[in-house]
């Protein structure tokens, strides 16, 4: 009896971990909306079906392990499935241990955080009329608690004259209407108050093309002396990207998804490029970029880290993974739409020569946040 229950729990753990891993990696690929929705439905169905079938079929029928049946009579297909689930369980818990063992890169010199309760500041939850507005009312949901983070980071190739240069980085607004426009207006008021030298947005702006009308009152109000730069993400790719780009350009934001930008200051050059790969099959090139130019890459997904390292990127800014949105006790994040699972969920990563910052984002298509606050980040670059 007890051996059977342990076996059943292992099957549940392993099959769930395998399903999550497959869904995460599918979402790191270029999938159409129908493919994403289909993978979700199949995954959620199997989350229920596999534990039930495993409990009933070998437990009560052949070989009836809950009724005194022999393990030797268990069909070979169950042993094969058990082996797959056992391996999946080991990999899953290994990844959890690896995340707990990961240390913040030494490139982070200081960090300061503060929280703002946007609902309290506005006198009530700024809930809209979007399709998932009911989720904002779930007990314990922290979707309206904004974290403002300021990090000083070491960039070895930073010119001495630029020591202290600051970048405001935010991502994943996901305008769908479930969170009302006042939420984003107040969040971006806090962003403007950070007074950064340049502003970078790393994609997934809209989930409802009609809410393009929100842009003038939200992102349109942000200003920075060295400019505002953006790329789009996979949720924008599902909509009318040309219309979104036009609206952003009309507000003075600079699209660097195809055309790179160079900023000259105090006799030095900063080269800014963007990547929306794999949704837009275009990767930046650096043949004509001076070797001494500081290289900054905006990439919606952190999955492009290997390419960034090959291109000698100094600083890469990403979003897409939302920090997982729900972080479970001990386990941490579970769902991250990445080919690397939840490895690049949020925060700082250094893989020489590239320092990567992954934003948890402002929102999500589904407004759920547990143990994973939405955030805006000011990065202050320091010369090591």
Structural commentary:
This protein is α/β, with parallel strands linked by helices and 384 residues long. It has two domains: 2-101, no CATH class; 108-382, Metallo-dependent phosphatases (Purple Acid Phosphatase, chain A, domain 2, 4-Layer Sandwich). Helix content is 30%, strand content 21%. It has eight helices and 15 strands. It has helices at residues 2-27, 33-60, 76-101, 118-121, 181-192, 234-237, 241-250, 305-310; strands at 108-117, 145-154, 166-170, 198-202, 228-231, 254-255, 261-265, 268-275, 294-299, 315-318, 327-328, 332-333, 347-351, 354-358, 375-382. The strands form three sheets. Strands 1-2-15-3-4-5-6 form a seven-stranded mixed beta sheet. The protein has a six-stranded mixed beta sheet with strand order 7-8-9-10-14-13. Strands 11-12 form a two-stranded antiparallel ribbon. Helix 1 packs antiparallel against helix 2 (33-60). The longest helix is centred in the N-terminal third of the chain and has 28 residues, at 33-60. The chain is globular. The N and C termini lie far apart (61 Å). The mean pLDDT is 95.
Number of strands: 15
Helix content: 25-40%
- Distance separating the two termini: 61 Å
Number of domains: 2
* Derived structural class: alpha/beta
Average pLDDT value?
A: 95
User: Low-confidence parts, pLDDT < 50 over ≥5 residues?
Assistant: none
């Amino acid at each position: 009896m007890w051996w059977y229950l342990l076996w059943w729990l292992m099957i549940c753990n392993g099959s769930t971990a395998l399903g999550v891993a497959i869904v995460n990696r599918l979402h790191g690929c270029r999938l159409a909306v129908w493919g994403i929705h289909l993978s979700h439905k199949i995954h959620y169905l199997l989350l229920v079906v596999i534990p039930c079938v495993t409990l009933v079929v070998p437990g009560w029928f052949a070989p009836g392990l809950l009724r005194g049946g022999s393990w030797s009579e268990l069909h070979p297909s169950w042993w094969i499935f058990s082996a797959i689930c056992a391996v999946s369980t080991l990999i899953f818990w290994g990844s959890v241990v690896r995340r707990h063992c990961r240390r913040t890169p030494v490139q982070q010199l200081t960090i300061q955080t503060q929280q703002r309760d946007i609902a309290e500041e506005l006198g009530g939850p700024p809930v809209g009329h979007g399709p998932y507005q009911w989720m904002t009312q779930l007990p314990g949901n922290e979707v309206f608690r904004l974290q403002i983070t300021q990090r000083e980071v070491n960039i070895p190739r930073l010119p001495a004259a630029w020591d202290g240069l600051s970048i405001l980085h935010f991502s994943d607004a996901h305008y769908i209407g479930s969170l009302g426009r006042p939420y984003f207006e107040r969040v971006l008021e806090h962003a403007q108050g950070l007074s950064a030298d340049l502003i970078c947005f790393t994609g997934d702006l809209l989930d409802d093309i009609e809410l393009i009308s929100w842009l003038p009152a939200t992102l349109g109000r942000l200003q920075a002396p060295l400019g505002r730069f953006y790329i789009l993400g996979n949720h924008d790719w599902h909509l009318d990207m040309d219309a979104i780009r036009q609206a952003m350009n009309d507000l003075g934001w600079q699209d660097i998804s195809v055309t790179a930008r160079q900023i000259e200051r105090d006799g030095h050059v900063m080269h800014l490029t963007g990547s929306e790969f794999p949704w837009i099959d275009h990767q930046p090139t650096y043949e004509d970029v001076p070797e001494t130019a500081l290289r900054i890459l905006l990439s919606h997904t952190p999955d492009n880290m290997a390419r960034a390292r090959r291109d000698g990127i100094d600083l890469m800014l990403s979003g897409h993974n939302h920090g997982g949105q729900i972080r479970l006790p001990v386990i941490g994040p579970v769902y991250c739409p990445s080919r690397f699972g939840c490895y690049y969920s949020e925060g700082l990563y250094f893989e020489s020569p590239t320092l990567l910052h992954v934003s948890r984002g402002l929102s999500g298509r589904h407004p759920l946040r547990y143990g994973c606050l939405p955030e805006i980040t000011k990065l202050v670059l320091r010369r090591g």
